[in-house]
Each structure stands twice: as structure tokens, then as C-alpha cells.
Design brief:
The chain is α/β, with parallel strands linked by helices. Helix 1 links the parallel strand 1 and strand 2. Helix 1 crosses helix 7, helix 3 runs parallel beside helix 4 and helix 4 runs parallel beside helix 6. The chain is globular and about 45 Å long. The protein starts with a strand and ends with a strand. The relative contact order is 0.16.
């Protein structure tokens, strides 16, 4: 199974990488932290493919390097806490690239084998619709809309899509928000439940993890 994991250097991403190693025939890892990415790939006998998700040429090159995929896991994400009157365009562009734009570019250039699977880590909308998270909410829900349309457009290619709704997970993503809630899942728990659903047959269109 030729597999590409986007966001491999994040909290959930690293747990997914460890749990995918040995379960797939070829594992490609991509993430924003080059040093962590290289070490992770070395430890897991995986292949590191760094790429800036906001750069179309880099994403195109990544898609060409990994070749036809059986599984694409999109676990990239970024958050910034700022009110609507304080939100900068630079922050908005950064969140858009990580949460939605990179996914759109990957689907533009990626090639898939028959019956390939694409899994995108999403959120429960009611848990994130809070003051200061407008850009995060807009980009994450934008990614959900993208998945809904992609599911229809890629049907003739035999590609199946799964939106994974995640509760709070104890990762560094919570640092700008003052830390994860006490009820947050450990990244290893989240990764195990994600893979259990994403690798299952039949593949569910929306996987809800509580």
C-alpha cells in the first residue's frame, strides 16, 4: 500500500506515522519541521518528502515523487487565536494553506490507484465555534466542503474519501489556546482509532471519534 501522510511532524501525525510503519508497503512522510521529519523517516524506515503546502510547485513535485497512491492521510493543521478585528492576512493565509489549501493542491496533482482512500482529519464544528477561532473554523469547515465535492468528482476514478471528526487531542496545536482540555485524547489513542476506521472495509464517509 503506497501511503502518503501529510502533517507527519504534528502530534497526531507522529503517532499515525509510528502506527503505519510496518503496516503499509511504502510510507511517505511530509511535514513542516524538516529536522523532525528526517529523524522520523529514518527511525521508521520511511521516506521523507518535505513540501510547503502553500507552494503549488512544491506540492506538485511531492505528488510526482510519491507516485500513484493507495492511501492519502491529510493530518496537517494550524491554529491561531485572534479576534476578527485583529486577524492579519498573513495568519489567515498560513491557516488556509495548512487546513485547506494544501489539501486542494494535493487533490489537484495526486495520482491514485484503483480503490484508493483519502482520509482528512476534521473537527466537530460545535466544539470550535468560539470567539478568536474564526480563521480556524472557516478553513477547517472549508476543507470539509472540499471533501464533499471531491468525493463526487473522484468517484469515476474509484477514489474513496473519509472525513474524520476528531474531538480535542492533546497536541502542541493547543499551545496558542492555553493548553489542551483535561478530557483530550492522547495522540496515540486518536491515531489508533483513526487507522481502525480508515483501514476498515467498507470505508465510512464520515468517521466520528469521541
Amino acid at each position: 500500500m503506497n501511503t502518503l501522510l501529510i502533517g507527519a511532524t504534528g502530534g497526531v501525525g507522529q503517532s499515525l506515522a509510528h502506527q503505519l510503519a510496518g503496516r503499509v508497503s511504502r510510507l511517505w512522510l511530509s511535514g513542516r519541521n524538516g529536522q523532525i521529519l528526517a529523524g522520523l523517516a529514518r527511525d521508521l524506515s520511511a521516506l521523507a518528502v518535505p513540501a510547503e503546502l502553500g507552494n503549488e510547485l512544491e506540492v506538485q513535485a511531492l505528488a510526482e515523487e510519491v507516485g500513484p497512491l493507495d492511501l492519502l492521510l491529510y493530518a496537517a493543521g494550524a491554529v491561531q487565536r485572534a479576534g476578527l478585528r485583529e486577524q492579519s492576512m498573513a495568519d489567515l493565509e498560513r491557516l488556509t494553506a495548512a487546513n485547506m489549501g494544501g489539501l486542494a493542491l494535493l487533490l489537484k496533482y495526486a495520482r491514485f490507484n484503483p480503490q484508493a482512500r483519502v482520509a482528512v482529519l476534521g473537527v466537530y464544528p460545535e466544539l470550535i465555534a468560539v470567539p478568536g477561532l474564526s480563521a480556524y473554523v472557516a478553513t477547517k469547515l472549508g476543507a470539509e466542503g472540499l471533501v464533499s465535492v471531491a468525493r463526487k468528482e473522484f468517484r469515476r476514478e474509484g477514489v474513496r474519501f473519509c472525513l474524520v471528526r476528531l474531538p480535542a487531542v492533546a497536541t502542541g496545536l493547543w499551545a496558542p489556546l492555553g493548553g489542551a482540555p483535561k478530557t483530550a485524547l492522547h495522540p496515540d489513542q486518536a491515531a489508533a482509532r483513526i487507522l481502525e476506521g480508515v483501514l476498515a472495509e467498507p470505508l465510512t464517509e464520515v468517521l466520528e471519534i469521541r
